[in-house]
C-alpha cells in the first residue's frame, strides 16, 4: 500500500435550471488533498475555503472517511491531510459533495477497499441525499441521474461538453437548508407537467449538445428558481446582462447564491471583461466542464 496519495475532486454545478436534484456538471474547479499516513490525525487547510476552527472528529472529511471505513468493517488509519480548495463554502459549487467524494476516496485508498465507480456513486449520493453534485464529482462531465428507494444510482454520463461556463460568486453564503425552506411542498398537476417538460427538454438539449437550446431551458425552471430568486443578490440583473452580452442562458448553480451562465467559447474573453465591469462585487470565474472526475495519484 502506498504511503502517500494526491486526491483531486472537481466541484460541480447542479440543476442548471429545471434539472432539479438530478442534473449535475463537473467543473474545472477543484478540491485537492495530499494524504499521508502518520500516527495521529491532522487536517490542514491551505486556504480560506474550509473551516477555520474544528475538531477532527467533526470535520466532514474525517466523518465521511470514518463512516465508509466502518461500513466496510475496516479500521481507518490516522492521516495527515493537506487540503486546497477552489470551492467556496455554501455558494452552490458543490463544496460539500466534493468533500464527501474526497472522504470516500480517502477511505478507499488508505483501507484498500477497492470500491467500484458504482459504489462511489451510490455512497456519495446516499450521503448527499440526491445524486446531482455527487455524481458530477465522481465522474466529471455532464451527469443525469436518478436514485431509487434503495439508494442505487443510475446515471447517464456525457463528456466533451464543448461550451464554456461563467460563475458569479457573491460574497455571501446560502445554506442549502435555507434555500430548500422556501420551496413549496406540493405543485399543481398542470404546473408540474410544464416543469417536468422543461427539465426533459434541458436534458435532451444537453445530451444533443444543442447548447443554445439548453440555455433557453436553463432559464424557464418552475421547480425552484421562482422561489429562490429573492434570496440571490442581483439575480435579475445578472440574467439580463449575461443575455445581452451573448450568453446562451443563466441559472442558479445548485441552490445558489452563485449563478452560472453557459456561453459560446468564441465570446469568452469579452464576456468576462464585460461582466466583471458590471458586477465588481461578484467573483466572476471562467471555467469549463471537468472531464475526469475524482482522480488519485500515488507519490
Care to give the gist of this entry?
The chain is of the alpha+beta class and 299 residues long. The protein is 35% helix and 26% strand.
Can you walk through the features of this model?
This protein has 299 residues and is an alpha+beta fold. It folds into 2 domains: 165 residues, 2-Layer Sandwich (Ribosomal Protein S5, domain 2), CATH 3.30.230; 125 residues, Alpha-Beta Plaits. 35% of the residues lie in helices and 26% in strands. It has 10 helices and 11 strands. Strands 1, 2, 3, 4, 5, 6 and 11 form a 7-stranded mixed beta sheet that branches. Strand 3, helix 1 and strand 4 form a beta-alpha-beta unit. It is globular, with a radius of gyration of 19 Å. The relative contact order is 0.20. The mean pLDDT is 96. Catalyzes the ATP-dependent phosphorylation of L-homoserine to L-homoserine phosphate. Its main location: cytoplasm. It comes from Lysinibacillus contaminans.
| Number of structural domains | 2
Q: Residue share in helices?
A: 25-40%
How far is the N terminus from the C terminus?
A: 11 Å
Task: Please identify the structural class as seen in this structure.
Answer: alpha+beta
Can you tell me the CATH architecture of the largest domain? 2-Layer Sandwich
Q: Major sheet: size, sense and barrel closure?
A: 7 strands, mixed
| Number of helices, where a helix is a run of at least 4 consecutive DSSP H or I residues | 10
CATH-assigned fold name of the largest domain: Ribosomal Protein S5, domain 2
The first-level CATH class name of the largest domain: Alpha Beta
Radius of gyration: 19 Å
Anisotropy-based shape: globular
Q: Look at the structure and give the mean pLDDT.
A: 96
What's the SSE pattern?
Answer: EEEHEHHHEEEHHHHHEEHEE
Low-confidence stretches at least 5 residues in length (pLDDT < 50)?
Answer: none
Pathway: Amino-acid biosynthesis; L-threonine biosynthesis; L-threonine from L-aspartate: step 4/5
Organism: Lysinibacillus contaminans
Enzyme class: transferase
Binding site for ATP: 88-98
